[in-house]
Amino acid sequence: MLVAATPPGRHPALQATEALPALAATPPAVLLGTGTGSVVQLADPADPNAVLSHLRTAAAHEGPLLVYLAGQLLLDSRQHLPHLALTRSTPRSVRYTGLPWHWLVAELGRRPVGSTAVIADLVADSALWQRRSHHRLAEGLVLYGSLAAPAAGRLPRTPEYSRALAAVLRASRARPPLEQLHQLSLHGAGFGPGDDERMPLGGGPAPAMPGPVPVPGPEPVPASVPVPGPVPSPAPVQMPAPSSAPAPTAPDHAPAAVAPLPAYAVPPPPASPPPASTPVPASTPVPPRPGGTTEATGDVPAGVHEAIYRAAGEGRHGEAATIASQWETAALRASGPHSMEAVHWVEVRADLAHRADDAARACTLWLQAAAVRLQAGQAPESGEVAGAVDRAHHCWHQVADRGQAYQLGVQLSQLRERAPGSTPGALRDVQDRLAVLTSPPGPGDRAAAG
């Protein structure tokens, strides 16, 4: 379902419908990840009840659902709740003429967990932008996208995230995982350090920016830590490969809201890049590329990894994640999304999320790393691919939320079919736990959760 609403007036905040034709023309296999599907376009709708009716019809569909939204978000003057402005909406009338955001959450929240995603390219009004940290738009939704501040002049903003999204989908034979699709779209839209007029929606720590960036912890990056500057040419970025240093051990009991672990031996905790106390030699080679070749450059100062893991070891997880995210952005710009330089930083971020006890985020990033390695041509049985899938599997068993565990388990099952690994029973373990997660919680689960 594609909804794009350009606000009224001679100088609208966003040319919302610009990317709609390109997205509507995308084959269902790429847009939805399914063999067949239908696309409903609502270009410049005026009636919120009509949009709600289409939304309910789409939500009643049993298959996967992707909702794309483009337009302006306004706060109503009475309850100060976000509304998607439609073509007759004004700041005074949006309470009656716009689509309340909580309607969207309520309708999509009734669907099966893991079957729905929302991609949004939005411009906030000044009131919402000032209070953006108070409105958790992603709460209750699987949400990816971009939220921009209102333009300073009269010229409308262009839907840069939507343009990049359409370009990525147009160049893909199959839809990438949503997290990877989001990161590629952010990269294509030019997100990066110093951009204080846009913020990513969902998807965890994307390219770092001042303001309410969705990374764990509020700590700023100290000026003494090297951060990547502009990348003048597409030269590969060097970083050390993950070593065998052990990460923090897993808890010795399963969370109360998740079924007990099966008899299958869960993979060990993720291996980490060098800890902060270990000197990082400048000559450390990057992970081998497909075909066995290795490139070594010196674009990343040796102290970067030390600074990252020192911050994580001292509990400054937000700072560590921000630095790693900035270096991932530099690697994306220098070498592309399928490069080993970029995937290294995805794996660093995964390990940092594990250290911060964010099992769901760590699992998501390890799944992304494995998928990118496979897309880059690495064999499913290679140690790098199998290691990433094993680490995702380990983190998945630590996810306490049943909905998150199910959604991640579906992705893990698909990867396990391609990269089963050397441990017998890995795929069966995922399938068995997914079966448990789809069943209602038993009395013991409810009592433990209560």
From TrEMBL:
Q: Positions of the region Disordered?
A: 186-255, 268-302, 417-450
Please note every region of biased composition (Pro residues): 207-249, 268-290
Q: What is this protein called?
A: Uncharacterized protein
Species classification = Bacteria, Bacillati, Actinomycetota, Actinomycetes, Kitasatosporales
